Amino acid sequence: MDENTDFGKYEKHYDEEGFWHKMKNYSSKAGGKVIYTALKLFYALKSKDTPAWAKSVIAGALGYFILPADLVPDMVPVAGYTDDLGVLLAAIGTVAVHITDEVEAQARQRMSDWFGGGWLPNDESMPADAERRPLISVCIPIFNCDVRHLVSRLNEEADKAGCAVEIVCIDDGSDDSFVELNAEIEPMAKYVKLGENIGRARVRNLFLQYTSGLFLLFLDNDCKNIPERFVSRYEKSLGRDSEVIVGGHRYDNDSNDRNHRLRTLYGRRVEGNRPADKRNHDTYRSFMSNNFMIRRDIFERIRFDERISGYGHEDTLFGYRLMQNDVKVLHIDNDVTNGNIDTNEEFVGKTRESVRNLVAIRRFLDDTGFDDTVKLLRTYRRLEKSRMTWAVLLVHKMTKRTFEKLFLAGRGTLTMFSFYKLGLLCEYSRQ
Q1: Cα–Cα distance between 287 and 302 in angstroms, integer?
Q2: Bridge partners of 140?
Q3: Is the pTM of this model over 0.85?
Q4: Which residues contact 338 (CB under 8 A, 6 or more apart)?
Q5: In the prediction, which pLDDT does 83 show?
Q6: Is there a single domain that holds both residue 354 and residue 337?
Q7: Alpha helices, DSSP H only, in 51-170?
Q8: Mean per-residue pLDDT for 270-297?
Q9: Could you tell me the residue range of the domain that residue 409 belongs to?
Q10: Distance, CA of 16 to CA of 231 (rounded, Å)
Q11: Helix, strand, or coil here: 217?
């Protein structure tokens, strides 16, 4: 194909999802010039300053670029990456005046994000390690949990995916028995063992040091029932212009064990089992960190706040940071099931710790916008404005022990539990 080609023939073949799919799956094979040239055209196409005629030329060139080789017309003598470059360069020559400095900068930044800061626009090919670099790094922080089955299932799903995948596990100071047990995962995953527990926020940030994927897929260590095509669903969602993708989670409906009743009931009714279409109505408030994928460059910029050292609300604050930075979040139906359900006693203890974290976040953040994202804080603010926190605190002092006994026995209602948390918030806010 030469520079006189009628690009309009191929315009109908262009779509953004198909473009990103080809970029993800063929970037290491096509060569640096092809990918860089395609990115310049893409960002020129997205620019509001590019006129309609130029966008038509670009869409045609990119339509040809993403067209499968077996569908390229016989008139094209060579269907492959060399010919792709010829077509893309012809388009560049036609619309050169619209390849602005801003477009060039966006293309260079994306190349740098993908292939490292050492990449130069004139590079003939990708860096030496590009072909080995995974698209997705599955990240599993471990604390006192047997992850052998989880890693085995993920390894099976990674093999089915249409992209390179690595699995990385970091043990956050587990007991020796679990560290030894999980040693069996090493043929399937990179296994990093920390000498001491560093906390939920800090250990998640540490994955940037031990992974190389362009996207980081985080899973809690107690996830079970990994669905078929789990990794593939994430991979196929990457072309939908989202920087963070949340898969969702659910709780088993079969568990009626009295000793785990409180956590199971709260999980089913409050946290889990919400389909993606409902979560997408409130994308940031629906964010939870037990099953989500984030673009690496976004995570390098927005990390979990390491001032939160204990259990709870590190994901609430992270979701708020995503909202503040206008990061695009997409929820999909790719649920995992929560596995190790807390006992009533464990969950009451974690609830106390999470409310303390909420108070700490509120103090160091000093941002009423954060309050608006948490139902418990919105209620507390209304009480503050009406000067009624003292009344809630008084009732809390009278009912606290009774409620805790009921919860530990697997009794009580979610209404009682909600008031108990509100009472804890009033109590801890005064300390």
Answers
A1: 14
A2: 169
A3: no
A4: 220, 222, 223, 224, 249, 250, 251, 252, 267, 272, 290
A5: 62
A6: no
A7: 52-66, 81-94, 101-115, 148-160
A8: 87
A9: 349-429
A10: 21
A11: strand
